[in-house]
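Hi R.,

As promised on Friday, here is the backbone we talked about, encoded as structure tokens. Could you run it through your design pipeline when you get a chance and send me back a sequence?
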């Protein structure tokens, strides 16, 4: 029996339109995955292996791997070490209220 092709984007978009709780959770998770992807891409662009980054910042390679594979959120301390090792920083800004007229 052949596999049935499923359009997951369509399903997710429909769910977002009909379920506010799902939409809110989806947006939160999307931000987290985007952050993880940006950090992983920065490591690759720097030409570092997971082991090299781990050695540089004093964490295990498993910490880097689990973070990049979205299996585990590192402690804030480990996360900041990873960012420092990649010469990245976090900027915190107050949310802006936009009023459209």
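Update: got your reply. Pasting your designed sequence below so it's all in one thread:
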């Amino acid at each position: 029996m052949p596999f049935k092709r499923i359009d997951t984007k369509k399903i997710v978009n429909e769910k977002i339109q009909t379920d506010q709780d799902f939409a809110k959770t989806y947006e939160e998770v999307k931000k987290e995955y985007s952050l993880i992807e940006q950090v992983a891409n920065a490591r690759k662009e720097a030409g570092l292996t997971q082991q090299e980054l781990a050695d540089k910042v004093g964490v295990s390679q498993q910490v880097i791997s689990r973070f990049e594979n979205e299996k585990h959120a590192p402690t804030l301390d480990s996360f900041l070490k990873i960012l420092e090792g990649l010469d990245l920083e976090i900027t915190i800004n107050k949310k802006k209220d936009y009023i459209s007229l």
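One thing I noticed while checking it: Helices lie at 8-18, 20-45, 50-57, 61-68, 76-85.

Thanks again,
M.
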